Each structure stands twice: as C-alpha cells, then as structure tokens.
Amino acid sequence: MTQTKCESLIKHSTQRHANMGVPAIIFCAVLAMPFSLDANAENRTGHTETYDLMQTLNARLHQSTSATLTLEQWCGEHQLAKAPVIRAHVLPSAFKTPEASVLSQLAVETSEPLAYRKVELRCGERLLSVAENWYVPARLTAAMNAVLANSGTPFGKAIAELKPYRKTTNSIMLWSGSGNIPPALFEHHATVYDADHRPLAVVRETYQRQLLP
To answer: Is this prediction's pTM over 0.85?
Structure first.
C-alpha cells in the first residue's frame, strides 16, 4: 500500500468512522516497517562486508615483511589508482622525542643519534596511512639516509638493500564495525630489522578509511 493510499484511508476512516481512524493509522505504520527494517539490514550487511575487508588487510599487514609492498598489492587488487605505486609525502615536523619503549626496541642508548620521519603514504590521490618512524641513521648507508632526507621514497624501499623485515608489536582497532566509518581504521606498531636481525627503525602507522575500495 502506498503512502497516498494510506493517507486516504486514514482521512476516510477519521471522517466517516472515527472509531476506525486509529486502526487505519496502525495498519499503515505496520506496512511501512519492513521497508525500514530492510534498509537497516542492508546497512548492517554493508558495514559487515567493509569490516571484514578491513580485517583482511589488517591480517595481511601482520604477516607481511613490508607494509609498503602489501599496500601496493592492495592498491592494485582493488584498483585504487591507475598506477598502484605507494609514494611517501613527508610531513614537515620537528623531531619527536622517542619514548623509552622505542629506545628499548631499537637497542640504543639515549645518547645515540636518531632520526624522525613522519609521512603520508598515498596510492594516487588516496591517503592509505600516516606513519611515524624513528630510525638509527648509523645503521643505514649514507645513500639511504640521503634518500630518506631528500625524497618521497617510502622507508622500506629506501633500505631495500638491507633486506629488511618487520615484526608487529601492537595493533589497535579504531573501528568496531558499527556506526559511521571513522577517518582512521586501525594502528600498527612495528619494529623493522635488517637481514642480520639488527633493529633499524620503530614505526607507528595509522591506516585510513581511504584504503577501502
């Protein structure tokens, strides 16, 4: 029954049979309920699929030795840009003093020089993550340090000659799968090592909503 027919029924019942006005209103309200329920169910289904997709990437990053390569594969699979290439946009920021836990993971003394880099990782125009990186320049080559200081090359690509791998130390979910999808979905904290298992960097990455297709 359409809304117009319901309005006609209510008006007719109210005018000619006052005692039937309320049943008519209730009847029309009940007819309208399935449409609302269907919309809510569709919304829940969409959120569930989106959440599952997010968790798929989350799991892949946990298992990956390179977040950059994993994001490039993701970008290509879901056609997020014409060219599935990750670029780092370096954000101007003052040196951020690392916490004691960062120094411990890097196995350095407080007197040993560290470098700090904050970047946006993008695939095309899409912002996939914002990453903070504390690294030990003395454990990289001069050429690697120059690339990191003067270009938009992601950290993992800049130090590729060292055959780096990473271990995730913490994961924080920022969206539970219900309600509106927030700008940031989840965080990863990880330590990056070279082939000799020497810690090179500690990274903190916040993955963004735009990584969703």
So the answer is: no
